[in-house]
Write a structure and sequence with these properties.
Length: about 625
């Protein structure tokens, strides 16, 4: 009897079912559909075999026609069910959920399916057996052919239409699966003794399993927890089907750079175990030392999170602390994209507990707007440099200026740096932005005009992130060479906080630049901790007194002697001083008498665009 292929198919299906059932899985819509498809495939194969046996029995031994016809019909009905499930599998994760047209498509599809199944059951069917050639025919079979064709073609069409949104692997797997089916049906149509369809559908399941539903791909090898990829699919599924959820993440924050590998692994394993023991909810390891657990219920999440926070001993013998990010209600975030942006932004937070509430989410949205603003400004060349001249007290002229960046909006309005530099530093955009700033300033210097009217040097603000460990001083060297600038015309302003963050990298970069002739000054002096280390151990020539510090001189009796003494010390160390934020004639006079070398402030000029700056130099540097 012609049932060898079907038996092989059953065996294959059995094997992947065992593999699939054995592994730990996430509750995903696609996964449920895959399970259904496997069941349908099983049923279909069994009825396929049964129908071949019964047709043979019926033709050669006169077995009951009614039973044989019913089994044949059930077989083709199950075949169509498989085609239908294939289409549902392809479209559920692709077609939009809420659009009216997509709802209509879904409804029509279901109606066609139901109608087709009823038709197949009531229409007459015939069958024949002649040696190895065994098949059914008649109106019922015709309906099954057309329905299968409809579903295979719709699945292929959906796959092609949503190609862009699909990972490449999914695209090929879907096409392979459906193509295989179509091919098998065609072969079987022309060579009826080759009963290939059942075999092709179980082989299709193998393709789907290996390429798309293979759970081991979502499992972290070390801890056995789910991976970041798994979280991504899981969260997208939840948002897609409108399922509200809660989540908490726990991160092991190491307090030193060096942690023993074995101790680290042990802490990771302990944490993983503790999280798994909290309950049946899925636990993910989303980074070497970051874990999260997803809950359906907010109260349960909060209770469990409190529990894990008390288990401090997970990191007991490590120089580390735990930090926790709670998302009590997934609906505060608009969708999976915002969800992952939120995670990405706040996972690194040093705060022990951070909760995703309206306020924090709004902050994220603001930050994102700023990020887009910077992106757009870079793309459309709307980054502008303003210049603020310094008065050189000894030489009674303006020979230095600070370059201060601005973004010009489309409507001409100016955005000040305070509104975007901190975000650029957080998002890493400071790198391309810093490059653009540097290029503009080098381009300005290369024209040589300002130098004609007495400008000797431009001071440029740089952030800690711009100092690269691998390519020291790259951001500066590139444009100095490109525009052929004399490096002595450039002075870089760094801050104490920047120097404190990455002292070694900073020093390495500074040395490389100083070798080329660039000088440095220390900005914002007098704010925060003014550690004497910074100007003793960093190769800076100029100290800039922050305007809060210079203002203090006039507002606070106690600051007076500090400031005067400081100027004295710095002079003894052979350094120059810039007093920032000088707005009145009185302030200017006091600073001059104190022996400050440079004065910067609105008293002389605000930061102004390039052309106004040139006009200023022409007017004031006779
Ligand atoms: P900063 O380096 O301390 O720059 C001095 C700030 O004080 C400038 O603000 C300047 O306009 C303002 N200022 C100058 N004189 C006076 C005055 O007499 N009174 C008052 N009230 N303010 C005065 P701006 O341009 O808004 O820049 C703010 C900060 O943005 C800068 O502080 C600097 O930290 C950062 N920044 C500006 N341009 C760049 C840049 O190209 N790169 C980087 N990384 N940061 C920049
Ligand atoms: Ca500055
Ligand atoms: Ca400053």
């Amino acid at each position: 009897m012609n049932i060898e292929l079907q038996c092989c198919a059953l065996f294959i299906l059995f094997t992947i079912s065992i593999m699939f059932l054995r592994e730990k899985k996430l509750d995903l819509m696609n996964r449920k559909l895959f399970q259904l498809a496997i069941c349908a495939c099983f049923a279909c194969l069994i009825f396929d075999i049964l129908s071949v046996i019964l047709i043979n029995l019926s033709v050669s031994r006169g077995f009951s026609t009614v039973i044989t016809e019913t089994v044949c019909k059930l077989y083709i009905m199950l075949l169509v069910l498989q085609g239908y499930l294939g289409y549902v599998y392809a479209s559920t994760s692709m077609l939009p959920r809420k659009k009216t047209w997509a709802k209509a498509v879904r409804l029509i599809c279901n109606l066609i399916f139901l109608g087709g199944e009823i038709l197949m059951f009531v229409l007459p069917i015939g069958y024949t057996a002649n040696g190895r050639i065994v098949y059914s025919y008649g109106p019922s079979t015709l309906v099954s052919y057309s329905m299968s064709a409809i579903y295979i073609l719709s699945t292929i069409a959906t796959t092609l239409a949503y190609k862009k949104q699909m990972p490449g692997r999914r695209f090929t797997a879907m096409l392979l699966w459906q193509g295989l089916w179509m091919l098998a049906a065609l072969i079987q149509f022309f060579c009826p003794e080759l009963l290939l369809v059942g075999f092709a559908s179980s082989f299709g399941m193998v393709i789907l399993y290996i390429q798309l539903e293979n759970p081991s791909e979502y499992i972290d090898g070390t801890t056995g927890l789910f991976t970041t990829n798994a979280l991504s699919v899981y969260v997208r599924d939840k948002y897609r089907f409108g399922k509200r959820f809660s989540m908490f993440t726990a991160k092991i924050h190491y307090l030193t750079n060096y942690v023993d590998y074995n101790m680290e692994q042990a802490a990771v394993m302990r944490t993983a175990k503790a999280l798994v023991s909290l309950g049946p909810e899925p636990v993910f390891r989303i980074d070497d030392d970051t874990f999260c657990v997803v809950y359906d219920d907010k109260e349960r999440m909060l209770e469990r999170a409190a529990n894990i926070k008390m288990q401090k001993d997970n990191v007991r013998d490590l120089p580390a602390k735990g930090t926790y990010l709670l998302i009590p209600d997934s609906t505060v975030l608009s969708g999976p994209d915002e969800f992952f942006r939120f995670l990405h932004t706040y996972l690194e937070s040093d705060q022990e507990i951070l909760t995703a509430d309206e306020e924090l989410v709004n902050k994220l949205r603001e930050q994102n707007k700023t990020k887009e603003l910077i992106e757009e400004a870079l793309l459309n060349d709307r980054v502008e440099i303003f210049y603020q001249p310094f008065y050189n007290v000894r030489e009674s002229r303006f020979n230095v200026a600070e370059a201060l960046v601005r973004i010009r909006l489309e409507n001409g309005e100016i955005v000040p740096p305070g509104a975007f530099i901190p975000v650029a530093e957080e998002t890493g955009q400071i790198i391309p932005l810093g490059m653009s700033i540097f290029e503009k300033i080098c381009s300005f210097l290369s024209k040589g005009e300002a130098q004609k009217y007495g400008l000797d040097q431009i001071e440029i603000n740089v952030s800690a992130a711009q100092f690269d460990y691998e390519n020291p001083a790259q951001f500066a060297s590139l444009y100095i060479d490109k525009y052929g600038i004399d490096p002595r015309q450039i002075n870089l302003e760094i801050t104490e906080t920047a120097a404190a963050k990455n002292h070694d990298i900073m020093l390495k970069n500074m040395t490389a630049l100083i070798d080329r002739g660039i000088t440095f000054s220390l900005d914002d002096f007098g704010t925060g901790r003014s550690n004497i280390d910074y100007f003793v151990n960093l190769p800076v020539k100029i100290i800039k007194f922050d305007y809060t510090f210079t203002r203090g001189f006039f507002d606070n009796e106690k600051i007076k002697p500090v400031l005067t003494g400081m100027v004295d010390i710095l002079h003894k160390m052979d350094m120059s001083v810039v007093a920032e934020g000088i707005e009145t004639e009185e302030q200017m006079k006091v600073m001059t008498e104190m022996g400050v070398e440079y004065i910067q402030g609105y008293y002389f000029s605000k930061p102004i665009p390039e052309n106004e700056f040139l006009a200023f130099l022409i007017k004031n540097n006779k």
